[in-house]
Design a protein that fits this description.
Largest interface: A-B, 75 and 75 residues
Distance between the termini of chain A: 42 Å
Structural class of chain A: alpha+beta
Strand content of chain A: 35-45%
CATH architecture of the largest domain in chain A: 2-Layer Sandwich
Number of strands of chain A: 6
Number of helices of chain A: 3
CATH class of the largest domain in chain A: Alpha Beta
Shape of chain A: globular
Radius of gyration of chain A: 18 Å
Oligomer: homodimer
Mean pLDDT of chain A: 96
CATH superfamily of the largest domain in chain A: K homology (KH) domain
Number of domains of chain A: 2
Chain lengths: 144, 144
């Protein structure tokens, strides 16, 4: 069973581009100043880390909610090492650190949610892990 | 030679998340309604297509500019087929269609710029092509 997804990316001058989905939602991109851009928006490679962390978080948050755990604060720090030479300037490793805070959060629940997300559900990770090693860790800030 | 890149993704309620780079630039994400989101922003998988097309465009536009070609209108349509079942719901193929308009644009210049970008310079494509077959085509709307 498959579906189709379409995006249109339009040039807005220099290295600024705007992407639009089929419902009209848009997002802006720009390049870093050292590569000729004006830094008015995030770069594509910064977005690689952002979408990997976000995609995995969709599933982690959904699983924790289904377990009736009360997450109050949640974030992910994504850090990557990037090869600068020779091109393409790909990431050579990525680490995600999940930080979860809540009133009844347990280590086992967070660990299992992250494992399920990363190994089974996260689509972005399912693709990216074929190109770059991805590791993760987590921290629970407060336990109820 | 390597560099490091860091992004922080923060949960903003339900399935809304905000990613921030080290300079403070931010981007919003949300999930489609059929997956529990509110569609206030693009989804991570829509962004996969957006950043692939944008990354490649950075190099295509830069190469065409270096060749002193006068591009006036430029866009890319990115279409992907997505496996819906079993998870992860990865893309199984991606096609990019570049559309270039300008006053002195030649078929050879566009073809060579796309080839260089896709085969040598585009970092996002350099990673994604290890996970999914990517094809491309192009159209020149007006020749000078």
């Amino acid at each position: 069973m498959t579906s189709t997804k379409k995006m249109v990316v339009e040039w807005k001058g220099n290295l600024r581009l705007e992407a639009k989905n089929e419902k009209g939602l848009t997002i802006q991109f720009d390049a870093p100043k050292e590569h000729g851009g004006e830094e008015t928006a995030l770069s594509p490679m910064e977005n690689v880390l952002a979408i990997l962390a976000t995609c995995s978080s969709f599933h982690v948050l959904t699983i924790l909610k289904k377990k009736r755990l009360n997450v109050t604060v949640y974030s992910v720090e994504a850090v990557a090492e990037r090869r600068e030479d020779p091109p393409p300037r790909v990431f050579t490793k990525i680490h995600l650190k999940y930080i979860v805070e809540g009133t009844n959060i347990t280590l086992e629940a967070v660990e299992s949610a992250i494992k399920l997300s990363e190994e089974k559900y996260c689509s972005v990770g399912g693709m990216l892990q074929k190109a770059v090693p991805i590791t993760s860790s987590f921290e629970i800030l407060k336990e109820g």
